[in-house]
Design brief:
Distance between the termini: 16 Å
Largest sheet: 4 strands, mixed
Radius of gyration: 16 Å
Helix content: 40-55%
CATH topology: Rossmann fold
CATH architecture: 3-Layer(aba) Sandwich
CATH superfamily: P-loop containing nucleotide triphosphate hydrolases
Strand order of the largest sheet: 4-3-6-5
Number of helices: 7
Number of strands: 9
Structural class: alpha/beta
CATH class: Alpha Beta
Shape: globular
Order of helices and strands: EHEEEHEEHEHEHHEH
Length: about 180
C-alpha cells in the first residue's frame, strides 16, 4: 500500500512503477470526483456517481473507502486485489491515510509505505503548481496533508519523494523484499 499527503506524487510514482515494472499490478480506485484533464476512465480511476458508490460500499465490493478532503469519496475494489494476491503477484494500492487504516484492519499482513515530500514548502509548491484545485480546495487539501504527515509512524516504511525514479525503484525493491525491517 502506498499512501501519503496530497500532491506528494503518489500518482506520479505509481505511473513510473506501471511503466517500468509490469510485474507489479496497480489497483485502480473508484471515485465520485470528476476527472481531471488527461485522466482516463479505467486507467487513472473509475469515475462513478454517488449512487453507484453507495451500491459498491453496501454490497461489500470495496476493500476500503473514504471521504477525502471532506469532499469526494474514493475506494478500492476488493475483487481485483484479492485475485492478484491469490496469483502471488505484487499489488500496489495508491490510497489515502483513512484507506490505509482500513486495509491494515482487513489485511494485517499487507505492507504499508508512506510517501513523503522533501519539505512542507515543496509539498505546497507541488499542489499549487499542478493548478487543478481552486484556493478553497487547496486549503482543504493542505489541512488534510498536515494530519497525514503526522501519521507517518503508522507505516512500515517511509520514502522521501525527492526524485520520482529513485522513489519508485525504492518502493518496488521494498515491495518484493520478503523481509523488510520496520524503520
Amino acid at each position: 500500500m502506498l499512501a501519503g499527503p496530497t500532491a506528494v506524487g503518489k500518482g506520479t510514482v505509481a505511473s513510473y512503477v506501471r511503466q517500468h515494472h509490469p510485474e507489479v499490478w496497480l489497483s485502480v480506485s473508484v471515485t465520485t470526483r470528476p476527472p481531471r484533464p488527461g485522466e482516463v476512465e479505467g486507467q487513472h480511476y473509475f469515475f462513478v456517481d454517488d449512487r453507484e458508490f453507495d451500491r459498491l460500499e453496501r454490497e461489500g465490493q470495496l476493500l476500503e473507502w473514504a471521504v477525502v478532503h471532506g469532499r469526494a469519496r474514493y475506494g478500492t475494489p476488493r475483487t481485483p486485489v484479492e485475485q492478484v494476491l491469490d496469483e502471488g503477484r505484487p499489488a500496489l494500492l495508491e490510497i489515502d491515510l483513512q484507506g490505509a487504516r482500513q486495509v491494515r484492519e482487513a489485511m494485517p499482513e499487507a505492507r504499508f509505505v508512506f510517501l513523503e515530500p522533501p519539505s512542507w514548502e515543496e509539498l505546497v509548491q507541488r499542489l499549487v503548481g499542478r493548478g487543478t484545485e481552486d484556493e478553497e480546495e487547496r486549503a482543504a487539501r493542505l489541512g488534510t496533508a498536515r494530519a497525514e504527515l503526522a501519521a507517518r509512524g503508522e507505516f512500515d516504511h517511509s520514502i522521501v519523494n525527492d526524485d520520482v525514479a529513485r522513489a519508485a525503484e525504492e518502493l518496488v525493491s521494498w515491495m518484493v523484499d520478503p523481509t523488510p525491517e520496520k524503520d
